[in-house]
Write a structure and sequence with these properties.
- This protein has helices spanning about 10, 30-40, 50-75, 130-140, 145, 155-180, and strands spanning about 20-25, 95-105, 105-115, 115-125, 190-195, 200-210, 215-230, 240-249.
- It is of the alpha+beta class.
- The protein has a single domain (about 1-249), classed as Ribosomal Protein L22, Chain A.
- β6 (about 200-210) and β7 form a beta hairpin.
- α2 packs parallel to α3 (about 50-75) and α4 (about 130-140) packs across α6 (about 155-180).
- The longest helix is centred in the C-terminal third of the chain and has 23 residues, at about 155-180.
- The protein is globular.
- The chain binds coenzyme A.
- Coenzyme A binds next to α3, β2 and α6.
- The site of coenzyme A (COA) has 25 residues, from α3, β2 and α6.
């Protein structure tokens, strides 16, 4: 049984133990504000004039981050807010890399120690419609990536589009804080997808990118994904893609 608070077991159970994850439903603002207060922070002054949706997403992301940090470092280590820098990159405590996402009714965060990974990126997204996948497919996926639909745990075109999109966004969020390099979808490639044992909806990923800051060297990344029904925000229906990407040494 996974102890990763709020995260689907199909994702959490496949992750290495040195990556700590947590998720939190994007509920009502009052409830989120109270949950945040109990963790030692409140809505930031910078969001005072932001719309309700943005404040709720921000808080659900920060609450997830706080729980993930507590799991990694212990309860005393994660008091207070994780502020963003000028590029909106979260500033983690010394010795920690991590990432925050909000989508499909959830905040989601992952953290790990800097001596284990160079970076961590996460994404949670609602699976797009067949029309969206058709319209945007060629901008996000190349033909090799599309062929990864086949094999263990075959995925529909829209699920594969969402997986590649999520994995590339996660890779970007794992790489940017360290290298400060803007990447397009064609700069990161999903090389391999391995479906989990007997489960079509989860598995592992291998990605690669060229890092200009390292003289164009190819850097390989590892990832994990899970496809779940949407538990929050039921009214909109559909399913939800969760992705975690890590930059190993
Ligand atoms: C930064 C970006 C990846 C965020 O993705 P998103 O789907 O819009 O939003 P998510 O909810 O998943 O993530 C938002 C969180 O990412 C974090 N974030 C923002 N910019 C970031 C960056 N440059 N690097 C790492 N993390 C970042 C923040 O914590 C933010 O939440 P917050 O503002 O509440 O703190 C996206 O907006 C972007 O700029 N993409 C351009 C680059 C790209 O997509 N290239 C193609 C893939 S290689």
């Amino acid at each position: 049984m996974s102890t990763a608070r709020g995260v689907p077991p199909s994702l959490a159970d496949g992750l290495p133990r040195d990556i700590s994850v947590a998720a939190h439903e994007i509920g009502l603002l009052e409830e989120l504000t109270e949950d945040a207060r109990q963790l030692g922070f409140g809505p930031p002054a910078s969001l005072e004039s932001a719309i309700d949706k943005r404040r709720r997403e921000y808080l659900a992301g920060r609450i997830s981050a706080s729980h993930a940090l507590r799991r990694l470092l212990g309860p005393a280590a994660s008091q207070g807010e994780i502020v963003g820098d000028d590029d909106d990159v979260p500033r983690w405590p010394e010795g920690v890399v991590g990432s925050i996402s909000h989508g499909a009714g959830f905040g989601f965060a992952a953290v790990a120690a800097t001596d284990r990974y160079r970076g961590i990126g996460v994404d949670v997204e609602r699976v797009v419609s067949a029309q969206q996948a058709g319209r945007l497919g060629a901008r996000v996926l190349n033909e090799r990536e599309m062929s990864l639909r086949q094999g263990g745990g075959g995925l529909s075109e829209e699920e594969m589009f969402t997986l590649v999109f999520s994995a590339k966004e996660s890779a970007y969020k794992a790489l940017f804080p360290r290298y400060r390099q803007v990447l397009g979808f064609s700069d990161v490639e999903l090389e391999r997808r391995e479906a989990g044992d007997g489960d079509a909806g989860c598995g592992e990923l291998r990605l690669r990118t060229r890092v200009a800051r390292e003289g164009g060297a190819v850097r390989r990344l590892v990832g994990w994904y899970a496809l779940t029904g949407v538990q929050a925000d039921e009214a909109a229906g559909g399913s939800c893609m969760w992705a975690v990407v890590a930059v190993p040494f």
